[in-house]
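Journal club side-thread
Mid-discussion, someone asked how the predicted structure for our own chain would compare to the paper's figures. Pasting it here so we can look after the session.
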Amino acid sequence: MWLSLLRGERSEEALEVRMRRYIDEQIDNKWYLVQATTVYEQGLPVRVVGTMRDIDAWKRMQQEKQLVESLNYEINHVLGDIYYAVVHFDLDAGTYHFVELTGQKCVDYPYNGTCEEFLAYTRDVVPREDWHKFRQRFNLREMRRVLTKTGDKLEMELRRKNGGVYKWISLMVSYLPDYSGSKKQQAVLVARFIDDERRREMEQQQELKEALVAAHTANEAKSAFLSQMSHDIRTPMNAIIGMTTIARQNIENKVKTLDCLNKIGSSSAHLLELINSILSMSKIESGKVILTDDELSLPQLLEDVLNIIRPMAGKKMQNLRLELEELKHAEVLTDSTHLKQILLNVLGNAVKYTPEGGEIVLGLQELSAVIPQRSQYVFTVSDNGPGLSEELLPKIFDMFERGEDSRTSKIEGTGLGLAICKNLTNLMAGTIEAANRPEGGAKFTLTLPLRWLGDDAVKPLPAVKPAGRSDFSGHRVLIVEDNDLNMEIALEFLQSLGLVCEGAENGRRAVEMFNASAPGHYEMILMDVRMPVMNGYEATREIRRLAREDARQIPIVAMTADAFSSDIKMALNAGMNEHLSKPVSIERLQEVLGQWL
């Protein structure tokens, strides 16, 4: 700058510069205005005269002003994004004008005019029913009446045409204080689109309505459930209590008493089936069912299922047979307990609803594998019974749904079996379907994806086990049971089979009695699970840890009312050999005794 002045290239120069100066040995870093003028003699530049003025405060003020202007621009732009229109009303003059915002999405009518014109323009873009409400609330007289002090406002939501489509907007008119002192009555209107918010709100309201309907439906279902349960439980209970009374009254009549006892046994079995079904469904719906991976042979499992069902079918002289196509993979991993439960439920229904002399066929085929080491296995149960009614088919897997017509009205059932099958099938990632056969009767199809083990063909089925023993004379067992009535029943059953029995009232006492006995004194322990002092699991672990050889070899059988598959697993994990669920039948007891003694 100075050189150019000295060379005479310029006569005057002014420059704003921020520089450091030493003042009284201190550094001063401020903005200065430096001005310089060239002095000429005989037409030539000879020197430069300059001044320097501190403009730091002024410069900072200018920078702050620029920041404020930039911020105002950004705020203005944001407001333009939020509000599609901002309108100022002079309520004294009865006029309006639009406030221009950067990025504003507005409007399709004049930016200035009278309030009456504003209402008239709005009429063309608002549905008639909304516009009448808008005119009543936002006319000049109403705004003058309502908007008289700071904090006063008018609000409304309506639909406005935008791009040929009606969308929801929110309007708010607020009193605008006059800081100029002119005492004008003013107001400002802001309008923004709320279509997305309104849609979400309507969706939420719809969800709430649906939730309310679902809750109402669930409450009705609960009432129906309790009503059905009350009926279904009271029916066999009435038979048990009534037949017990009749038996007492005819105690000398052996034939009559035996008939009553047979009917009590039948009603008790039905009541137990009902309770088991309710508990199974409750556990499934609460998410407490845990699937296991058991190694099993499908042909063997099917034969086991048929062996259980054959006595029922035999009473009705029905032909029960197995149609097993050649399986490429007969050994699979799946939850054997729940698979068996599904098949037993479906087969049990087939036996119930098929007339005497009818035919029931259990089939299985393996479809080609679509996933490595996994195939679709299709189990079918077909019968030549009356079939399923068209009204029942769509809801056959719902709770408490049963075929009720003249052919089946006297057949006992809980209406829960197929609902349990459906839920278990879902847990196992499979499907179950019901249909009527063209030739008559019903057909149930269960399809499950199962992981297989190796490429073995179907193995020959083992021979059917011989019937259980009925005489166990000379064998000694320890019964661990805290309930006196259950202890009495167990003793009666066991002693009738020739066994010598000793009892313990809790797990701790059982451990003490076993430890004090000579090796081999007890040949089996029948262990309840839920007991005071020490439960059956703890007692079993204590016995297995004792320093004697027979502590690890003696069969310990859980005899408990905890009957779910998870309870069986817990018993085995505790060191027990077998699981007997209460109420214990003497036939099942004979089977277990024959296996372990």
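Post-session note: The longest helix spans residues 195-249.
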